[in-house]
Amino acid sequence: MIRFEPRGPVPVSRMLAVSVAAALAALMLAAIPMAFAGLSVFEAYGLMAKGAFGSLFAFTEMLTRATPLILTGLAAAVAFKAKLWNIGAEGQLYAGALAAVAVGTGLVSGPAYVLIPLVVLAGALAGGLVMLGPTLLKTRLGVDEVVTTLLLNFVILLFVQMMLEGPMQDPMGMGWPQSEPILDEAALPKLMARMRIHWGLIVALVAALGVWFLLKRTVWGFEIRAVGENAAAARHAGIPVTATFIRVGLLSGALAGLAGVGEVAGLKGYLTADLSPGFGYSGIVVAMLAGLSPVGVVLAALFIASIFVGADSMSRATGVSNYLADLIVAMALISVLVSGLFLRFKVRFVGGPAAKEAAE
Amino acid sequence: MTGPAEEADIVLRLDGITKRFGALTANGDVSLDLSRGEILALLGENGAGKTTLMNILFGHYVADEGRVLVNGGGDALVELEPGSPHAALEAGIGMVHQHFTLAENLSALDNILLGTERLAALASSRAPARRKLEELMARSGLTVSLDTRISQLSVGEKQRVEILKALYRDARVLVLDEPTAVLTPQESETLFETLKKLAGDGLGIIFISHKLAEVIASSHRVAVLRGGRKVADLATAECDQRKLAELMVGHEIVETVRTPGSPGASLFVLKNVSAGDGRDALHSVDLDLKSGEILGIAGVSGNGQTTLARVISGLGAPTSGTAELEGTALRHTSARTMIDNGLARIPEDRHHDGIVGAMNVTENLAIETIRKPENQRFGLLRFAAMREKARQLIKAYDIRCQSEDSPARLLSGGNIQKIVLARTLEAEPKVVLAAQPSRGLDVGATYDVHQRLLAARARGAGVILISEDLDELMRLSDRIAVIHRGHLSAAEPTESLDRGTLGLRMAGHGGEEAA
Q1: Of B11, B459, B467, B508, which sits most exposed with the smallest number of CB within 10 A?
Q2: Other CB atoms closer than 10 Å to residue B459's CB: what's the count?
């Protein structure tokens, strides 16, 4: 028989060890269906590692993929910290991308040092405003934000499609539903020549640092943590609960909006309706894997990006579907959720007398 | 029931139980016998190891050393399999936890049956179960409506369901963890009558308590735990409250004594305040608190006290009426305005409203003043200053914690209350609202709370003391008003009142409504 006994506070080292163990467990679990698919497990993982880390190109591709995941992961983490369940990062990402394209394709012209900040700000603002609605509905009327943010994703995606087939369609695009390309002066510069990696990564890393600083060191962060952990006590202690939710909502939406800015202004150059392969939703997984810690979000985003990029590469080499990546990510999430149990409880095996002796 | 119990009568024996959590010894070599038909009170302060001991008995924890022996129906005592609640249930041990373990959305009957039958058999077993329960209820006097959903039952009724659940499983030993912590005085009395009846039928009963009066009144034997060790085991007839209190605390007890105060001018006034709706609503309440006095508010739980406390705390705006502080109307009602105007609020449910359990002691001490210059500059937290202040308050208020960085949820109830006291009283507030400030606290912590309130009064603050404990009210208050169904009577000097009159007014008889 297995027994669980509660543990006291958990040191950071153990948290880290459990997270790494969870990632390893996920890789081992995913190996089972890989073996059934006829792959040699070691060879397949070798190919994946090579695909994500094997060359400078592979490595920068992995970092490029991690960039939006860091931002949507932060968006989820900061909102979840206040127990504001923002499931709408996908929609906020598209809103940010749409705003970046609207501003960056000729609405204003000027040198790069004016246009780039403008595009970035516009995207952040658009994402934040999208999240403002569900937040106000929650604080004023008690409407469940899980429902509103989730459904807004579809509303916004359809709106983007409408814009791309209508007013914002590229006249030079031969009828494809895509926007005009972003001006060169408005595009985020590349970090390295001949690679796709761009300044969005720096923005994401600075954002992670900023969110960490906000939560740990500032009054607003204190209030976010207090509201998230015990809203009743926070209200009793005079903390402005509603204002805190609004701040968190704006910030969370803005971070997701920044992810959209990076994808259009740093990577693609123009907006299409398939800009994001679900970065907003993957951000939730990233945040959960990270235990809502901003620094953890960076690590978790790198992990998930390397799985995705690695699996793509492996799938090209072996012909096995890259859905395997989704499988590994799902296994990782399950492993991490289960590992939470081991952080909170001490597990003892109680069996026959021998086992009992050992347990003492 | 007095005298050494015959070996054959023993239904339960704890033999040298030791349990350690890290460096802390929660139980050290505790041995205990319980006989058939005996009511044993397990007395001790918070953190003395009572609950740990009972959790070992019930199999929630495994003891590091020692054994639990039960009479399995025959003559001999057999060792109980450690760490198995299932084995404890099989052996006829029933436990009523302080926080009930009932499914709110099921009927009382289904809750009682839950876990006794396989799910498939549940439908067919209802009729015989109902017969057995009706017989049990008739015999024990524990009446509940079996078909009512748990969520619609009062706290007292829920507790009866818990006891019935144990009896239905043919418990020979019943353990109750602080059974009166959640009950009104009337409900407590009924409970103990029932327990006596059950003991008369041969049930062995252990109840955990730190309330001396009920231990003296209702038990046959008392075992006192202190610091995890059993320091006394004696017949109740041989002891009095004072002796028990000293055994429990380990030193002589000083009773709280109130010297006549010198009330000053009106400080905090409620005029014609109505608020809330339903059972807990307030109707046209007038209240006039003077400086330098403690104004007690007596009443049976659920008569509007919670709403009154919410209004004064700034958590709910009154639907009509005004609140004035030193002659100025408080227009804006929010927790923040109340704090900024020098109102200290000690909430009724300190775990729910008083602390953020996941945050540490430092943060919980600073939470009400987090935006004040002493705690932040340009929106950045001043950790060093917060820490320094916390260390100072921990010392001044004797908050027992590992360090100022410990999460507040790890502290005992008494120490959590000290955090609330420290952060609210430190700023020398003009008005103190203390809602049920000693509920669930042990003798030492209660004494501490009372001294703090008296000290606030002595320096000229006005204190509103909402309590269901008449002894506490009569000991501390200069004047007492009674709240009943949302109406508050005019406050009268404590000296002109006695328990009988107050009791009648609390039940809604006699006494003029506020004039």
Answers
A1: B459
A2: 9
CA–CA separation, A84 and A54 (whole Å)? 39
What is the pLDDT, as a whole number, of residue B248?
84
Res. B260 pLDDT band, cuts 50 70 90? confident
On whether the CB atoms of residues B168 and B133 are closer than 8 A, the answer is yes
Domain map of chain B by residue range?
Answer: 9-92+172-184+204-251, 254-342+427-515, 354-426
Minimal CA separation from B355 to chain A, in Å: 6
Q: Return the pLDDT at A84.
A: 97
Q: How far is B490 from chain A (nearest CA, A)?
A: 28
Chain B: residues touching A (Cβ < 8 Å) = 21-22, 61-62, 64, 83-84, 313-315, 334-336, 338-340, 345, 347, 352-359, 363, 367-368, 370-371, 375-376, 379-381, 406-407, 410
Q: How confident is the model at residue A332 (pLDDT cuts 50, 70, 90)?
A: confident
B9-92+172-184+204-251 and B254-342+427-515: identical CATH topology: yes
Q: Which helix (H) or strand (E) holds B462?
A: strand B462-467
Residue A318 Cα to chain centre, angstroms: 29
- Other Cβ atoms less than 10 A from the Cβ of B186: the count is 13
DSSP β-ladder status, B320-325 and B282-290: unpaired
CATH H superfamily, domain B9-92+172-184+204-251: P-loop containing nucleotide triphosphate hydrolases (3.40.50.300)
**Token digits of residue B256:** 């709280």
Whole-number Å distance between alpha carbons of A152 and A285: 19
- pLDDT of B80 above 60: yes
Tokens of B336: 């923040």
Between CA B256 and CA A256 the distance in angstroms is 59
Closest CA to A282 of A307, A313, A258: A307
Q: How far is A16 from chain B (nearest CA, A)?
A: 20
- Distance CA(A320)–CA(A44), nearest Å, equals 10
The interface predicted TM-score (ipTM) is 0.86
For chain A, the domains span 66-291
What's the pLDDT tens digit per position in B273-321? 999 887 789 999 999 999 999 999 998 777 899 999 999 999 988 999 9
For residue B484, what are the CA distances in angstroms to A19, A90, B305, B499?
56, 54, 9, 16
Q: What is the pLDDT of residue B199?
A: 93
The stretch B68-87 carries a mean pLDDT of: 81
Strands B431-435 and B343-346: parallel
Q: What is the pTM of this model?
A: 0.79
Q: Up-side HSE of residue A105: CA atoms within 13 Å toward CB?
A: 21
The owner of tokens 């749409």 is: A98
Question: CB B269: neighbour CB atoms within 10 A?
Answer: 18
Distances (CA, A) of B125 to A272, B33, B90, B270: 63, 36, 19, 57
Q: Report the CATH superfamily, name and number, of domain B254-342+427-515.
A: P-loop containing nucleotide triphosphate hydrolases (3.40.50.300)
**Do A187 and A104 meet the contact criterion of CB atoms below 8 Å apart?**
yes
Q: B115-169 pLDDT, tens per residue?
A: 776 666 666 778 888 898 999 888 888 888 888 898 888 777 888 899 999 889 8
